[in-house]
Each structure stands twice: as C-alpha cells, then as structure tokens.
Design a protein that fits this description.
Two copies of one chain form a homodimer.
Chain A (H helix, E strand, L loop, with lengths): L3 E7 L12 E7 L8 E9 L4 H4 L20 E8 L9 E4 L6 E4 L5 E2 L16 H14 L6 E4 L5 H12 L3 E6 L2 H10 L4 E4 L5 H8 L4 E5 L4 H7 L3 E9 L17 H10 L3 E4 L9 H13 L7 E5 L4 H9 L6 E5 L6
C-alpha cells in the first residue's frame, strides 16, 4: 500500500508570462528514504520572483529547471522518516524540497529551524531568504546613513517591506513604491515608511521628486523596468543601487529598450553611482548577524511582516503567476500540508 | 610697456565634435598680481578627455566653462611674480591655470612640484591626475586579484597605460585595447601588457574572448560605446567595472541606444556585477599612497609612460580635437612655454 505524493513539474519554458499549461501537477508513489537519507513532508512552500528565471534557459546565476523536472523552491518541512544520524522524525527543517508534498534529502541542504525565533513560516520570509536579501543588500551595499533617503519598490512584499523598515531602524528616510492604495496605506501606516507611492501613477517620477525632496541616496532595485526609469533621474551623487531582482522584466521576451538606457552609463560617471548586483548567498557570512538583528527587531516590534497564504500545492502555479503581477499582498507562501501530520 | 599674454576661450558649445570655430585665441595684457596673489607663466598644459564635458551644458560633476571663458585645464607653471608669502619667483607649481600663457592665483589651488620625483611634466600625467585616476580606480574599485584578468581601453593613453601596468604589478593579467597596430605593439612590447587588441577590429568581441580565456574580472571603463559593448558579454561573475570616462560617447548628440542596454541591468543581476563611477577627487585621501607607490614604480622601471607633446598654445584646440579621436599616442601635453623663462 504505497502512499501517494504530489509534485508540480515544468512542462514548457514560458514565452513571456507563464501560463497554467507550463506546469503539470503529478502524483507519484511516496519514496522510502535510503541509507543516510530523510523523507520530508512539506508544510510551507515559498514562492519567489527568482523562480521565473529558473523556468528559462540562458545565462543566470543558477541552472534552469529541466523540462519535466520539479519546480525548485525553498520549503519548511517535517522529517517523517530518517535514516540519517542528524535528524529524527518530527524535526522541522528549512530546505529546498521544491514544489512537492514530499522529498528525499541527504541532509546537506537542511537546517533545523529554531521555533523560538518565530513561527516556522518566517524561515521562508522575514527570517529567511527574502529577509536576508533585504538585510545584506541594504546594509552591505546600500549602506544608508542617517537622514539619507532610501527608495524601494514592491514595498509591501517580502523583501521591500524589510528594506524600508531596516532603513528606518538605521535612521534613514524610507520611501516605498507599491501597487495600489491598499498596499501603499499598509506600507505607510503599518510598516511605518515615511511615504509610499503607487507605481501605477502616471506621474510617478514627479511624485518621487516630491516625496524625496533631498533626492535618493539608495535605490534598492528589485523590480526594474518603468520604476527604475522613474527613480533614475532623482538619484543623488554617490547613490548606491543594490540590484537583487528585476521582476518587472522577467516576462520580457524581446527585451524592450528602456528610455533611460543611453544615459545610464553617463549618469554612472557624472553622479559616481554604484550599481551592484547580488544574490543572498554572496553574503552567507552575514547569516549570524542577520538572524541576531532581525529576530531581535521582530521581538521588539520594530519589524513587521505579512504573509499571503495560498492553500494547497495544486494552486501553486496560479499563485506564482499572480506573484509576478503583484497579486500577492505580503510574503507569498503555499500551505502544502498541516503543521503536524 | 605691458607685456602680452594669450588665452584660448570657448566661443560656442559644440554640437557633436568640437570644431576650430568653437575656440578663439585671444591676446590680453599681462596682469599684475594683487595682494596675496602670484603671477604664473604656464610651461605645460594638460589636455584631457573630461574637458569635452566642460564645453557642454547639462548635468555633470563640474560646472561648464562659460561662453567667452578661458578653457579649463591642469597646468605646470612657473611663479614669475609673487605677492604671496608661500611662493617665490621661480617656484614650479601644479595648478589649474587653464588654456593660457599666464594666470593669477591666490595660491590655494597650487601645489609645489617635487622635481626629485621625475620631470615636472609627469605631474600632469603618470604622477598626476591621469595616473591617480588609474591607481585609485583600479585598486580601490577594480581590486584585481592575482591571476585575474583586467581589460582597459585607450591602453596607450595616460590612464589606460597606467591601469594595465599597475594590474601587472599586482599579479593580474592585463589586456589592452587601443587604436591601431603601432599603439598595440607599444602596449605589448613596451608597457608589458599580456595582450592588446585593436578596437577597430570588427571581430573585437571574438578576439577578446580569445585574449581572455578565463573571462574578464575587471573592466576599467574609460571609453564607453562600442568597446563596452564588446567587453560586456565576457565579464565574469562578480566582475568590477570602475567608470572614469566615456570618451567614445562625449561627442554624441542624440544619444544612440546601445545594443547592450536592455541586458545591462539583467547582467548586473545575474552576474552580480559592480559598476561604479568615480572621479579622481573622490579618492583624495589616497594621494600620499599614490605618489609613494607610483614614483617608486617609476624609479624601479616597472612603470613606463609616454608623452605626446604639441608645441604652442595656439595649437591646443587642434590637439584637443585630435585627442577625442585618438590621434595622440601617450599623454597629450601642450608645451606652452619653456622650462625657464
């Protein structure tokens, strides 16, 4: 009597926006752990913009998901069977089980979650990869000084919300950009940003100028496209632009030629800008600092976060397609299984 | 009996390439130094690509030269009269007297040149602003590690020649790009670069791939335009791009949209590039280190340099127009007056 497991595989590489038919939900027999392996049951699956890159071929910092392969992703899982000396049944671990209900692991990519730090789902959000992306990109590249102005887009999202709050903790002025009035209100009133603008506003660039009377010293780039175009003219001399994502461009097929492109390098020179791309693993050495500071700020109530939960693995493709359009409001998670089996 | 002095003033702001008619050589009566002033006689005038920027209006790191104003420029001068307690007749000083035979100064922008470090003209080249641009941009932003590959364009010029040689001193592989066989031969055989490519080669990008089999870790950007386009695909993960100049773009009128533009930010992200603009004064604190290291390397024969001398202030406009097209071969200087009056 083999139990059934479920997984979401990549069927075809999307041209432009992913479609439902680019994914397939498959059932398969629950595998048994071999020597040195654990069997994991997924509780939470994180959906993140970078996954769009893994669906495409072409140069990136990671290999693409193969056609027919399970979609990759960070997960919080319960160990339900263990042939590994380091893990026992019932351990809650952070791992990369991907878009599936169960997975085998040799334990190398697993980290036991300290439930004392917060709800285990935060290991995928504010205390996980998105939070650490915000923390390291802002502090190690952006280096905001007191009274400086930090602008971040997708400000109600997992990364952006942390960026603005950390900027505020460090004494900088935080201005968010988000999609729609509800998100902007939340960013201002709940997250405590100094201001938040709607990226759908046709006068975004003019509004930015008003919201940033002293110009922009740090632009934390996680969206690209038209938002970058609106921000660009307001960058101050010596501004820093950490680049961790370009969600607005991920579905581009023929890359459009942005209006700002010709002047980009000239402004790099005349304004002495620093533009630096990074991914969170570049700052692995900062993980201890990150957990210490962020969990403390969470406990002190200085750092707020919001989760946006989609129920059931079957709905992961739709949730992911929504994420790329900003349909989520807070950190996008998929509830794959209950906290305890 | 008032002695005559001469100066070159800006008549009109060039559209595209500067023309002879954008400049005018004027004679004027030699002024007398007031209280606290010195009268300078120019020996050497430095011509540098940044001067093209000063001819135009529009945002930059420095104000433009006004119409009718004397063209700005770094100079080596002799003090020929002094009402300033810090200077005596016969002092040789580095200053910014501009494109003229004589100038008054209150002494604040003057620095006495230590002739023991080398010929006084080197204060405008390898031991001056171009040398320090190379030194700080390469070491403080580019940070080449042993065995890494450094690429620099305008490799026979004042900045580029120093960049490649310093890279070599630091144990990196230096690949130059220059205009024509003579310059490339010089860069390889005299300056000791590991390789040098002709930027006129239509297969520049393919040749770069051959010359840089391990990719490019540092691209010292001082030209922009098509060279950047050729270099860009070969940048390695974590490559650094110090940007000190864009000479190939300075005469652009309607900014062309370069082919690489759409992918620039995407590559910044996927390759985790650092692109940083700077001007030499940003690193003023490094001046002591610069003079110590560079003068030592000069004395030890590790650092070679070449001067390209145009005789007479009247020829400065033509020499400058040539510089923008790469007609010079080495650091472009104008001999304005004799070493000693």
């Amino acid at each position: 009597m083999s139990q059934q497991a479920k997984r979401v595989v990549l069927v075809s590489r999307p041209k432009g926006e992913p479609k439902a038919s680019d994914f397939r939900v498959e059932e398969y027999a629950l595998p048994a752990p071999g020597q040195g392996q654990v069997l994991l049951r997924t509780i939470w699956l994180s959906l993140d913009p970078y996954m769009r890159g893994r669906m495409s071929e072409g140069p990136s910092y990671a290999a693409p998901v193969p056609i027919g392969g399970v979609m990759e992703g960070g997960t919080v899982c319960e160990v339900i069977a263990s042939n590994h000396p380091g893990f026992v049944r019932g351990d809650i671990v952070l791992g990369r089980a991907g878009w599936q209900t169960h997975a085998l692991s040799d334990g190398k990519d697993l980290r036991k979650i300290d439930a004392a730090l917060g709800p285990v789902s935060t290991a995928l959000g504010v205390l996980g990869m998105p939070g650490m992306t915000a923390y390291t990109g802002l502090l190690d590249i952006g280096k905001p000084q007191p009274k400086e102005t930090v602008v971040v887009a997708a400000a109600s999202g997992a990364v952006g919300s942390a960026v603005g709050q950390i900027a505020g903790i460090k004494g900088a002025r935080a201005v968010g950009i988000a999609g729609g009035k509800d998100k902007c209100d939340y960013v201002k009133s709940e997250l405590g940003f100094d201001d938040c603008l709607d990226h759908r506003d046709p006068d975004l660039s003019a509004k930015l100028k008003e919201a940033c009377p002293d110009g922009i010293d740090v632009y934390f780039e996680n969206v690209g496209g038209e938002v970058f175009e609106a921000v660009f003219p307001h960058l101050n001399a010596f501004a820093r632009v950490p680049v961790c994502g370009l969600i607005a461009q991920y579905n581009d097929t023929a890359p459009s030629v942005p209006k700002w492109a010709p002047s980009l390098m000239r402004s790099v020179l005349t304004k002495r800008l620093t533009i630096r791309g990074f991914i969170v693993s570049d700052f692995a050495a900062r993980h201890g600092d990150f957990l210490r500071d962020m969990s403390q700020w969470l406990r002190e109530g200085k750092l707020k976060h919001r989760e946006f939960v989609t129920e059931g693995l079957d709905r992961a493709p739709a949730a992911f397609m929504g994420l790329l359009k900003g349909a989520n409001f807070g950190k996008q998670l998929v509830r794959v299984g209950p906290d305890r089996a």
